[in-house]
Amino acid sequence: MAKIKHNNFIDTVDEVFSNAKKEGILHLYAEDKILTGRTIQIKGKEMFHFGTTGYLGLEQDIRLKEAAIAAIYNYGTQFPLSKSYISHPLYSELEIKIEKMYGIPPIITKNSTLGHLAIIPTLIRDEDAVIMDHQVHWSVQNACQLLKLRGIPVEMIRHSNLEMLEDKIRQLTTKCDKIWYMADGVYSMFGDYAPIPELLALTQKYTQLNLYFDDVHGMSWKGKNGTGFVFDAIKELPENCIVLSTLSKTFGASGATIFCKNQKLRDKIKTFGGPLTFSAQLEPASVAAAIASANIHLSPEIELKQKDLADKIAYFNHLLSQGNLPIISKNDSPVFFLGMGTPLTAYNFMKRLFKEGFFLNLGIYPAVPIKNTGIRITLSSHNQQQDITALAEAMEYHFPKALEETNNSENKIRQAFGIESGKAEKISESKEQELYIEEKNTIHDIEKSEWNRYMGKQNVFDWDGLVYLEKTFSQHPDPTNHWDFYYYTIKDNEGSIILMTFFTYGLWKDDMLATESVSIHLEEIRKANPLYLTSKVLSMGSLFSEGKHCFINQKHPLAEKAMKLLLDKLEEKYNALNADMLVLRDFEKDNSYNKTILDQGYFKIDMPESCVIQNQSWDTYEEFTKTLSLRSAKHFNKEIEPYEKCYDIAIKDKLSKSEIARAYQLYNNVKENNYAINTFRYSHEVFENMNESPNWEFIVLALKADVENPFVGIMFCYKNNNHTYVPELIGMDYKWAKEYELYRQLLFQTIKRANALQFQKIDFGMSASFEKRKLGAQIIPKVAYIQARDNFSMELMGTLQNEHKTRTGN
């Protein structure tokens, strides 16, 4: 199986966060000597604090502070023993008060993350299954990874997609005992709610369905006794529902609480729930503060505090309704999210608000899709009405200015978030008509000499190559082999070409660049559902080509403006097509437009390395080996050259009907054995059209020992303008592959043929770089830039990959 270098998710996140840190937006330090909750000092500037998750401001309540101080004096800074042995003197009182609040005995844990780790592996039995909302908190998703070690199905659905949830339930009903759906009560980024009435209705329809809620962001500001959003919605906890709440955040202290109706299950979790057994218990100060907070929650005062915050939320909503800011998920929670679209706009806006004296939170990938970057604003009891008024005015004033300075628009943002999209804006060629952009839908509308001048030496996309690609894919009835073509040319006002590129629009497998284990798993599902986990993708270039799909005259003074204009046009096309993903492919790692592209709302991923041989010229094998390293030359002399005599080698411009059938069979052999780059299987017409094109030829290897078959290996090669030789596809009979070094022989015969034809370059593709390097290929790191409607597919690929690692240890 051919190997490739896969993208590392952590590297992508690190780059996104590093850029935000450079902008002075993340990883900041508060500098206050005394914190009040209303303001916070950063870099010497006092700002009004609109970024807290302590919505009722109880962390500054004098009663909680005094209780914590007294506990330290009385009991010390910690009680260093596991609760399995003994709890410190304050625990019992806290448990009694929390039970009074909820009417159910609680399980108290150090924090919510450890709470999930304590309950989920204990709660979920081997015969059960889990379905997660893909926006459920990371701590829930992390705890569910442990279930995969036990072979428990862990599925994922798009955010609050009840149709998808019900479909998953139906799939699992005959395979599992209980099915647990895991969600947040209030989601921390957009402040939207779980659809609890609808979920409860599903539990009536499917008796196997159970619900598990993380409600840490719904706590205190909602519900009787401040028991939270979920308890307020369900009124009484049913047997088939588990809720994790918090003693932190709005509650003002530290720790988390777990509630379940089943006494036997509660005892089991408390007796042996992982971190409950082996982790330290809450410090006396935290428990004392929690007791003081519980007293407030059990008193009429909590309703006054809830009303005060609700009034401020309503006031802020009223102010926002007077303007036209793209606020996502309007509701009565204390969490607001102002859509910015691109990171660049978000950075600009936040810096403006910082200067005005307002601290807000950045919402960025991976917490939200990169194109759904925005600003999270949270209200608390500390905020005064005049602060809220000033914030709303500052937002209204600076929002359009941030858009203008970052080449963004309100309409673009609304389209990115799918809200009130309205009429699509027309992309201006340029305010001063400096630039003109043309879009064509066929290569036949572009002059051949002009296209070849700028793009003609690249891979399979010179003018003739694109004629072949259009003929093969543009009218194909099979949706997996059908592509639409878009050609873009940008010229200055004198008609000089600054930029030229092409895009295709079609279906991709979401796991195309995932690890082989993920693809193998998904291909089993696709036997019954061929389009499972596929997306509509608008991509630079095509899945049939690789290389520099975009020409840019970097010496032109308007080159960067041309790139921005292209990005604008692509966003317009992306939205018009309602594509799931927009991909800019095959850029070199250190390219001049990295920042420009990232600022417009893309994230960067590492692509498989590209393999290229250039400027080779040799007459004898001895001369060839001199182009290699000493180690590679030994490899050639031992593993390749001796096996050449085992084959009859032919170069064919045409294949007979039976030979095409055999070639297609061999191609399918490779396709079925190689998931390194998991694309759809090409149809028979792809190869028939090759056979009719004068630009294609076939390197055919027949094994002298296998007289039953006409040939056992084939390389499908494209000849580009006497410049670039492209071994595009390969076919092999694996029966003989290992014994006769078939793959390596095909690689060498390709090099030999290109040398004989005096081609200056061989584009050797993106897989098996180790083998190609040994034959003299240069390995070129490549990156792609991506926008996606949501992070669902990428997160699901991550969970599947982690599942394989936990099961195999690889």
Automatic annotation (TrEMBL):
Keyword Amino-acid biosynthesis: no
Keyword Transferase: yes
Transmembrane stretches, start-end: none
Domain Aminotransferase class I/classII large stretches: 47-392
Domain of life: Bacteria
Domain BioF2-like acetyltransferase stretches: 635-773
InterPro entries tied to this protein: Aminotransferase_I/II_large, AON_synthase_class-II, BioF2-like_GNAT_dom
Keywords carried by this UniProt record: Aminotransferase, Transferase
Signal peptide as annotated in the record: none
Sample GO molecular function, one term: transaminase activity
Listed name of the protein: Aminotransferase class I/II-fold pyridoxal phosphate-dependent enzyme
Organism from which the protein derives: Flavobacterium taihuense
